[in-house]
Design a protein that fits this description.
about 50% helix
């Protein structure tokens, strides 16, 4: 049997609703024919021709206070996991709204050392230099500063290797000239 007040499912023999506590016996008595027993009504319903079901009358909205308040069945307490705090993250520096700090990208220097000095170490310089503006646009100021620092470091490494090769070439050229000059003077 369904409770006419809250719609909860109850046993057919239940005296009160298990959810809202409505007296179901009074409700049954309201719909029972006078002078008939419950079993007689059931047998008569099977033997009688098909009749239209009675029109449902909605019970009154207010009922007598029946003790402790119970929440309607559609309001169940929250059964999820308790709130957990996320892991700690160190706060990052955030400039005032609309202002971004100036972080140099060294992209021009990176391209110059890539072409003129030593290309294997010039490639990381260009990669890190190109990341600076993207990270600034996303608001990752600390990441942009780190990429700028790495781009500058790889530019200096490439420049140092390029200067080292030039100095080594000059020294080898001087040695070749000295050896070639010594070889020509000993022949005469």
């Amino acid at each position: 049997m369904y409770c006419p007040q809250c719609g909860a499912t109850n046993d057919d023999q239940a005296g009160a609703c298990s959810q809202c506590g409505l007296d179901l016996n009074k409700y049954r008595e309201q719909w029972r024919e006078p002078g008939a027993q419950a079993g007689d009504q059931a047998q008569a319903a099977y033997a009688a021709p098909v009749q239209q079901p009675p029109v449902y009358q909605q019970p009154p909205y207010q009922q007598q206070y029946q003790g402790q308040y119970q929440a309607p069945p559609y309001q169940t307490p929250y059964q999820g996991q308790p709130y957990q705090t996320p892991p700690y993250q160190a706060p990052q520096y955030r400039p005032p709204y609309g202002q971004l700090p100036r972080v140099p990208s060294y992209l021009g220097w990176a391209i110059a050392v890539l072409i003129l000095c030593f290309w294997p170490t010039g490639i990381p310089a260009v990669v890190f230099a190109s990341q600076v503006d993207n990270k600034l646009a996303l608001g990752d100021i600390v990441g942009a500063q780190e990429s700028s620092r790495k781009a500058k470091m790889w530019c200096w490494i490439s420049f140092g290797i390029g200067v080292g090769f030039i100095v080594l070439g000059i020294i080898i050229a001087i040695i070749v000239v000295i050896v070639a000059g010594a070889a020509t003077t000993t022949i005469y």
